[in-house]
Amino acid sequence: MLFRIYFNREKAFHFDIKSVTLHYKCKCYTLTLMNRLHIIILTLTCLIAASCNNHTGYNHKLAAVDSLLAAGAVDSAYSELNNIKPEEIRTTEDSAFFYLLNTQAAYRMYKPIKSMDGLNFAIRFYSDGNSNREKLATAFFYKGNILYGNGDAKSGIKYLKNAEFIAEKTNNHELRHKIYEAFVVINEAADEDRIAMKYSWKSLHESEVAEKKNWLAHAFNNLAVLYAKEGKKDSSEIYLKKSMALLKFIPKRDRLFIMNNIGVYFMKNDKERAKEYFLQILKTSPIEEAYENLASIYAGEGNNKLAEEMWTKALKSGNLQVKDDVLHAMFRNQTKNADFIAAAATAERLINLKDSMAMKRDNVNLKAMQAEFDNVNSKQEYERKMTIAIAVIIILTLCASIALLYLRYKQYKTKAAMAHDQMMIRSYEAQIEELKRQGESREKEIEAINRRKEKLLEKHRDTLNRGYLLYSDIMKGKTTVLWKKRDFECVIEYFRLVDVEFVDRLDNLFDDLSPKYKFFLILEHIGKTDAEIMTIMGVAEVSLRSIRSRVNKKSVIRG
Hints:
Largest sheet: none
Low-confidence stretches: 12-34, 50-56
CATH architecture of the domain at 1-186: Alpha Horseshoe
Radius of gyration: 43 Å
CATH superfamily of the domain at 1-186: Tetratricopeptide repeat domain
Order of helices and strands: HHHHHHHHHHHHHHHHHHHHHHHHH
């Protein structure tokens, strides 16, 4: 029994694979009436755009061709592209878009790609950081398909992985979906079923997000096949039934390989129904898998002549794995019927085929290729993130430094302003005292100076009032245990009014000393004993010695 996945080239590509064939289509639908009307409108748009010879005309025409391709009207798109003369396109952007569309249309129509110069031109243009990244991913996608189909697996994988890397940074579900489907085929073909399963789940996710029922049908079919290969029959059956439920959303000509899998499912318990599916496929568009499965049923019924006829047709496949399955089935049937001469000939063909398959496997290590790209990509992504992180750290450090410098500057400016104001207040007080000694005739001048003094006091009233209250508390025997830095600063500023010379000396000698330690020096200055200082500051004798040691050390350094 051949349980298959198939990938149709109209979606992306088609090439020989070893164990399953993936049938997947994105936009190539059987045209309903609405689709036909849509394509007619798009074609008319192309004709109107063709009448324009300026840049805008070509841009619109190419956009219309792109819409035709998206709608599955590949023939119409290819025809419109043939009406465009590349040498008449004036802009590099339009030229790149033309070559990308032309390669896409030719490839989807199975036209031979004689040269990739045009596609390479598009890749060079879209590789510019300011250009369309989705179009670059699309260009990488088709180049990867072409190279892989031509036997250059390593280069093909490289371009497909680049396409995946770019596509995953976009919001284009269709682009990601077809790339994931490509990797399902490639990895399943190389028996890298774990990787194929990973991409199948990614494909299913994109199908669900895009709410495309035809995508879902194929995604479920892919999972059914991969689970069948793992021997997980229950899981395979679950996803096959999900695919069957969505079969009506797939155009008839695109249902063949899912129908083949459904036929395989019925071969276990309802061979007649299975036959109906396989015969329906052969009437629509014969595929080797259906021939092989029918041959197995006919052989089981004893109809060896018809079985041999089906097997012969199945052997025309270019798929080495299909040939291997068919030859094994033929060999088993020939030995069962004691046809040892034919069995010997079939065995020889199997040996030759196995050698060819082994050589092909040895030449292509897809898992290593993909792992190498992923490792390089992960390293580059890590380095990129580290570069960004370092840049962010540097910027944050600079911002923090600037903020700290600004804060220091603001504090210094505030302190300087307060010191200046306090100096002025003391100056005003001295002037008032002098005027009072001179007699009553100077009352107006005294009043004016008092107003200036009060104005300065008002400016710093909150700080000075709080400093006065806290200083009074200390004089009454209260402690600083619950004080914050701001409280110590307020007391120091108040004490500046009491003894400006001492506080100025503190600022000059101990500028970088904390407010708490400056307060300690004030306590010593006003004659408080060690016992009183310990009570006021709520510290033990050891802590007091530590404070004095630090203050003395600062004094020595300054001295």
